[in-house]
Amino acid sequence: MMDEDRTDEAEGGSGIVKKFMYVNRKAPYGTVYALEVLEMVLISAAFDQDVHLVFTDDGVFELKKGMETAGIGMKNFSNTYRALEGYDIEKLYVDQESLDERGLAEADLIVPVTVLSRAEMAKLMGEMDVILSA
Amino acid sequence: MKFAILVNEGPFNHQASDSAYQFAKAALEAGHAIFRVFFYYDGVHNANMLAEPPTDDRNVVKNWSTLAEDHKVDLVVCVAAALRRGIKNDNLAPGFRISGLGQLIEAGIQADRLVTFGD
Amino acid sequence: MSLLHTVAKSPFERDALSSCLDLSLPGAAILLYEDGVYGALKGGRFAERLAEAAKTRALYVLGPDLKARGLGEDRLIAGVTVVDYRGFVELAAKHQAVQAWC
Lengths: 134, 119, 102
Hints:
heterotrimer, B: Hypothetical Protein Ychn, Chain: A, 5-stranded parallel β-sheet, globular, C: alpha/beta, Hypothetical Protein Ychn, Chain: A, 4 helices, 23% strand
């Protein structure tokens, strides 16, 4: 899906490893943000950075199991979250409050995640070098 | 200090591109460097040279082109986002170039700070 | 070092400010700009929560955005510092990273 983007720029980091956080705060399909953040995350895998993927606010809807998009004529990209492990992107975080507020539980999610409180999430965010948010 | 700037919205629906431009100008005036400005999502529309806003308002596309010319700022448009939205070399405004998302990640690594404007 | 959080959208429309307040640590800086400046209005729905946050976080509002919207500094809650774009740049420079809430 993203192969056209995986150019030879990957060595651009020249050995520096930073803590990157991608903050997903938008639901899928209604806007394009969820899909294009995912594309960003996949590219980042080629740079060997310390990647943290956060789903908070409406971003937790991105991980809902059982999406069937044929009826809206859009591509279902939710299986890509399951492929992240293959890219060595394994630090996925969701906050409990965002789940609770939306009537979701961890069992609704398509991939294993670490569930944090909002306070724990704030602390984790405070440790980052680069934060990309949508 | 080296700044990288990410512009995530198009030139007119949202103020994001204007804010990013004002930020970039202020950073340069303060003696900082702009490592790169990266345009993603609808932000790629900032590079559309066919845009013709009314003459009594600012021209966002032209502002960016002028900034690139005056200060040698690297303006990079994401290729995947651009192709989706019909931005190609044929209609790319002066000073912009189209490249991969890796350029954004590289900017995050190389610059001291990455500042995001827009959703 | 701490983070600079930026909020660009009106809290009357979106939860950007609210999430920012939840997910920022004491010691962090918060800059309201674009429609985000409406959050800092005295007598507004978010005044109390923001005043509470101002006890532990440094709050800033972007002056040009305020002025553009017909608002004087006298309309802001206490404890907020008004900065220009140069000030925005310096805030970004002096914090370890910037998180944008939209």
